[in-house]
Each structure stands twice: as C-alpha cells, then as structure tokens.
Model the fold of this input.
Amino acid sequence: EWPTVKCKQGEHQLQYSYCVWFSRRTPGNKASSANYEQNIKIIGSFASVEQFWTLYSHIARPCDLTSSSDYHLFKHGIKPMWEDEANKKGGKWIVRLRKGLASRLWENLVIAMLGEQFMVGEEICGAVVSVRFAEDIISIWNRTASDNSINIRVRDTLQRVLNLPPNTIMEYKTHTDSLKDRSSF
Amino acid sequence: GTRIIYDRNFLLNMRNSPLSQ
Done:
C-alpha cells in the first residue's frame, strides 16, 4: 500500500513525490528477497520541499544509526528493490565513504536529487545510504544500466554534488549482477 | 515538459521556513 501524499497550498512542489524507507539487517544474516521485503518499511513520504524538511528533521541522521541500517529515498511508486519494474534494467553508482562523512554527503545527494540537478529525465529512481561497521556507502539508482551517456552524467553529477576528491573510486553495478551474486555492493 | 528545478541554496534556506517545521 502506497501512502497518499500531496503538495499543500503555499508549499513548494517537487518534480516528484518520494517515500523514505528504512531497513535494518541482523548482521550475519544473508540477504534474501523475502527477508528484505519484511525488513524494509516506509517511514514517511513527501511531495513538497516543506514536507521533506519536516520529515528530514524528525529522523535520525545516518551517522546516528546503528550498523547494517539503510535509508532508501525513492520516487513514490518505486520500491527500493532490484526486481521493481523501474529498477530491473537499471543499476547504481556506489561510493564508499570512511566513517564520519555519511550524514553530510547524504544530505548533499538528497538535495541534488530533489532539486532535479541530475538532468537525466526520468532516469533517477532513488538513492540509498548504507551504514556499515567499517565504512558507509552511498548509492544512486537509475533505470537504464545499458545507457553509457546517462551513466556518465549521473556519475559526474554525483561527483560534483558530493564534492568528492578526483581520486575517489566510484563503481557502477547493474541490478542484474546484484541479483546474480545476491549482494548489494 | 517543464521540470521543477531547485538549487542547493534555495533548498537549504527552505529548511528554516515556518512550513518546514
């Protein structure tokens, strides 16, 4: 069931409505689709700039989450799952971060996504921040893994909005590959 | 069609708007 979400009078509408999902995996448990779907919950949705900030101010920052937690910020109607219709031909850019950077960089990424800074039409599906023991990981998902020009534009925008040093390693992984090896990263 | 684009500074400033509380 998708939550109903509407821009109210006086608010600044976003190009898309979004849902924020939260998941936490018991460390050591191998991910399976069934598990994953049980462990992931919508914690809020928004259609305007004001509704976004209201929600954002009321949820913990990534740095305050325990290990194995994830926030998934996806367009309303797209589940943060490889199998979703919008995702199944897609992939994601992955950036690994040393501990301590995730909250700030996640905010930068979210703001760029909501403000439509990626300039790739309907391609962006959502973004994920994954809090892990030794590092944190930020990723952005797009619809068409096979379109190299789109992928390059997403990568360059990601690099710019996160203000990453030029030598930062960025990996692209298709969801088909994730499904094959049952692993996100 | 037209896209609704917001720059970073605008969105950050909106954080303090009364409707965002």
Summary: The radius of gyration of chain B is 10 Å. The longest helix of chain B spans residues 8-14. Chain B touches chain A through 15 residues (CB under 8 Å). Residues 7 and 13 of chain B are 10 Å apart (CA to CA).
